[in-house]
């Protein structure tokens, strides 16, 4: 049990500077505008980076247009976007750091076990930011808040890959 407490503290410690309340509010507001676009977000990621689509056995080798409107695609897109929504809901409150650390550690472990690379995580990040900047209210402050938050999250993920 002590091991997990120490591990959680180490993970939380990798967040150099948590988002300010204003930054967290900016992230939440921009996310609110797209969080129900699960299918479109995952389709954008797959379109930008077919190597990521190839990592999903149920979607590998299939034409994106033929899978985008399927139930299986919608369910998986919902899982991915749901994870992001959980993290977005937790940012900006230091007391939520252990919960964030737990969620991010679980994601990191499961993706490490599947052989997902830092490069593929960075590709996902790039597509997510591209989607956000095109479909959400976006300005320099929004870009800075997302960059700061994603730097924190991806730092935690990469510490466990």
UniProtKB/TrEMBL annotation:
Q: Name one GO molecular function term.
A: metal ion binding
The record's comment on protein family reads: Belongs to the globin family.
Q: Which organism is it from?
A: Chironomus riparius
Cellular component, GO annotation? extracellular region; hemoglobin complex
Identification of the protein by name: Globin 1
Signal peptide as annotated in the record: 1-16
Where would I find the Globin domain in this sequence?
18-161
Alphabetically list the UniProt keywords: Heme, Iron, Metal-binding, Oxygen transport, Signal, Transport
Name the domain of life. Answer: Eukaryota
């Amino acid at each position: 049990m002590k091991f997990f407490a120490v591990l959680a503290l180490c993970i939380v410690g990798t967040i150099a500077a948590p988002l300010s309340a204003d930054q967290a509010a900016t992230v939440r507001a921009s996310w609110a505008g797209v969080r129900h676009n699960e299918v479109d977000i995952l389709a954008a990621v797959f379109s930008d980076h077919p190597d990521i689509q190839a990592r999903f056995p149920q979607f590998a080798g299939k034409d994106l247009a033929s899978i985008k409107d399927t139930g299986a695609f919608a369910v998986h897109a919902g899982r991915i976007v749901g994870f992001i929504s959980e993290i977005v809901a937790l940012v900006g409150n230091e007391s939520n750091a252990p919960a964030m650390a737990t969620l991010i550690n679980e994601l990191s472990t499961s993706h490490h076990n599947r052989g997902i690379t830092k490069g593929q995580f960075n590709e996902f990040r790039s597509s997510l930011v591209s989607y956000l900047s095109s479909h959400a209210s976006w300005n320099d402050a929004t870009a800075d808040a997302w960059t700061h938050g994603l730097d924190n999250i991806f730092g935690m993920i990469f510490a466990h890959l």
